[in-house]
Amino acid sequence: MKYTSKNFHLHYIPQYKLFVKADFLEDTLIVVDESNDVQAMFSYPANEPDAEAIKLLGLPFQYVFITLPVQSLVFIPAEVYQEENHALYQAFLLDEHEERTQVYTLDNLQIKACYQYDLLLYNRWRTIFPHAKFVADFKLLLGEVQAYIPMQGEVLGAHFNNTQVELFAFKNGKFLFYNVFDIQNVDDLNYFILTTCQAFGLHIKLPKILISGVDTEHQYSVALAHFANRIEFMQARTNLYADDESVEKEVNKFNFIADAPLCVL
């Protein structure tokens, strides 16, 4: 994807926001103006930066928000979380360096998240944009999910990010789990859905599955429909718009990225 709006102007760079969605396979850059209109969008292989995208990265953006995958993540109920027990929580993370661990509070779920970004990706983007705000997908998803969760019944959520799926579940309004799995195809997805449902005592045919990161026609959406009476696609609080219909459709795959500023206030 390579798109630049006819309304894109360099002298508006200080007012534009730059959203970056990065992982090991692909980088996506989205530039929006103050009206949330997409002024530029580039997606390219992470190991083969696009020449035009490189020029974009060199511009003096004042507002930069970067979403990265987490290397490890653990949740602790807020009522039992104690800052002096940080070493105990650290034992559940992959990296023993406490200075890399960040803590985020999800007030709506009454939980604390201790997490670490992937070190290589974090250092790479921190070098490019020292002033950028970093956001993990779980903040965006779990921060907005309760509007979709009934007080009774089971709900499974699936957020897709290239070769990863982030699964989470609620039962009778209570948060059960959140985990990240590597997948290559539908068979992998089916396996993790089945084993996860069995591990947490969820029905194989769920009342509802929430989906984000892919559209209705994607093979993963079709596969998930077999596990639920109803599937629902999560929507961000902030809508993005584009003059080009194909660009707007592509932007919708990254629907939560525009909500990143809400997680770093």
Would you mind describing this structure in some detail?
- The protein contains eight helices and 14 strands.
- It has a six-stranded mixed sheet. Strands 12-11-10-13-14 form a five-stranded mixed sheet, with helices on one face. Strands 6-8-7 form a three-stranded antiparallel sheet.
- The radius of gyration is 19 Å and the shape is globular.
- 23% of the residues lie in helices and 32% in strands.
- The chain has helices at 51-57, 86-90, 119-128, 137-144, 186-199, 219-225, 245-251, 260-263; strands at residues 2-4, 17-22, 26-32, 38-45, 63-67, 70-77, 102-106, 111-117, 133-135, 154-161, 164-171, 174-182, 208-212, 231-233.
- The protein folds into three domains: 2-68 and 237-263, no CATH class; 70-115, no CATH class; 140-233, Nucleotidyltransferase, domain 5 (2-Layer Sandwich), CATH 3.30.420.
- By secondary structure, it is an alpha/beta fold.
- InterPro entries: DUF3822.
- It comes from Sphingobacterium phlebotomi.
- This is DUF3822 family protein.
**Strand composition percent:** 25-35%
Q: What is the alpha-carbon Rg in Å?
A: 19 Å
Which secondary-structure class do the elements indicate? alpha/beta
Q: What is the chain-wise order of helices and strands?
A: EEEEHEEHEEHEHEEEHEHEHH
Give the number of DSSP strands.
Answer: 14
Major beta-sheet overview: 6 strands, mixed
Helix count, DSSP H or I runs of 4 or more residues: 8
